[in-house]
Amino acid sequence: MGERLRLFMSVKLENSKLNRPFSKNVLAQAKKIADRYKIVLSHEDGDYIGHGLEMPLVMADGKTAKQCVANTHDALVAAVATMIEHHEPVPAPTLEAKRTEQVNVRLTREEKMLLESSAKRKGFEGISDFLRVAALKAT
Asked: Is the pTM for the entire model greater than 0.70?
């Protein structure tokens, strides 16, 4: 698919640097926040596709995982910088957000075992985080 960059805004990436002028202060703030965001990668049609866990609509791709992470990070920085400029609330990094709400899900033993195995395979510590990420990604 070539260089896919689907954002809620249009941003061009050139040599891994943002091709959009932001003030130094705004860019520094945005980088500091985006550095703490989680990037989710998938592999599709020979390309890697990444999106921000905290900002699932901010996506980028790359021929290698490393390139995809860099492109996705740049896209996240641009999205956060734009939000800062427009005085919009910026999502807190996942690990820093307080989770105060709870949802209970009933599963069969087989479903639970399948989810535990999938969660481990994808690098999650447990089913809760795995389900949260999958559910947020689906919405």
From this structure: no
CATH of the domain at 18: 3.30.160.250
- What is the H or E stretch that residue 47 is in? strand 47-52
Tell me which residue range forms the domain holding 134: 99-138
Q: What is the pLDDT of residues 10-29, one digit of tens each?
A: 344 444 455 567 889 999 99
DSSP secondary structure, 89-115, as one string: PPPPPGGGS-----------HHHHHHH
Beta-carbon count within 10 A of 84 CB: 18
Calculate the CA 18 to chain-centre distance: 18
Query: Are the C-beta atoms of residues 12 and 19 closer than 8 Å to each other?
Result: yes
Contact indicator for 124, 130 with CB cutoff of 8 Å: yes
